[in-house]
Amino acid sequence: MIKYFLLLSVCVIFNSCLENQKKNNETIDLHFLNTHKLDIKNGQKIFNKSCITCHLYGTGGAIILNDKKNWENILKTKTMQKVYTNVLYGYAGSKGPMPKKGACQECSETDLLDAIEYILSVNRLSIRK
Ligand code: HEC
Q1: Closest CA to 103 of 39, 59, 37
Q2: Which of 49, 52, 63 for a ligand 1 pocket mutation test, highest count of atoms within 8 Å of Cβ?
Q3: Nearest Cα to 99, choosing from 88, 115, 107?
Q4: How confident is the model at residue 21 (pLDDT cuts 50, 70, 90)?
Q5: Does ligand 1 have an atom closer than 6 angstroms to the CB of 96?
Q6: C-beta 60 within 6 A of ligand 1
Q7: 53 lines ligand 1 (CB under 6 A)
Q8: 87-124: per-residue pLDDT in tens?
Q9: Per the domain annotation, does 113 fall within a domain?
């Protein structure tokens, strides 16, 4: 009986690890991405507060705000889920590191999505199909 419980708890712990792993990879809630009510003004505010440090002039290898060609290329080669995951968790880009949450620790997921959409809107692009 005890053995059985032990086995069960190991399974539960193992499963929750798997869940976390999944979350960290790419299972961002698509429903959230698709139904998110865009607030460009909020996006601009977030951009000016945090993203601007790197994305205005390309500091640290970041893509410059109005570099339409590069932003367009990102949308062509990556899913919006991937781009959003990269912003949320950060990643090592070929030109430099993109910090987790764009270095805006207090930003909500909505704030970050607004900020991405703001960048894209400056270039007349959108992650919405
Ligand atoms: C410390 C500098 C820095 C800050 C601050 C920063 N970024 Fe970045 N960002 C980067 C770099 C560097 C890259 C990757 C360049 C590359 O691909 O080599 C990047 C890439 C990106 C990408 C492209 C992701 C992809 O999948 O290709 C997006 C979108 C982005 N940043 C949005 C933001 C937003 C939104 C903020 C603010 C909330 C922000 N960044 C703040 C440096 C920064």
Answers
A1: 59
A2: 63
A3: 88
A4: very low
A5: yes
A6: yes
A7: yes
A8: 999 999 999 999 999 999 999 999 999 999 999 999 99
A9: yes
Query: Is residue 20, in this structure, part of any structural domain at all?
Result: no
Nearby residues of 24 by Cβ (< 8 Å), 6 or more positions away: 89
Domain count, the chain: 1
- Residue 120 beta carbon below 6 angstroms from any ligand 1 atom: no
Three-state secondary-structure class, residue 68: helix
**CATH code of the domain covering residue 115:** 1.10.760.10
Decide whether any atom of ligand 1 lies within 6 Å of the 87 Cβ.
yes
Q: Is residue 77 part of a domain?
A: yes
| Domain containing residue 75 | 28-122
What pLDDT does 11 receive?
A: 52
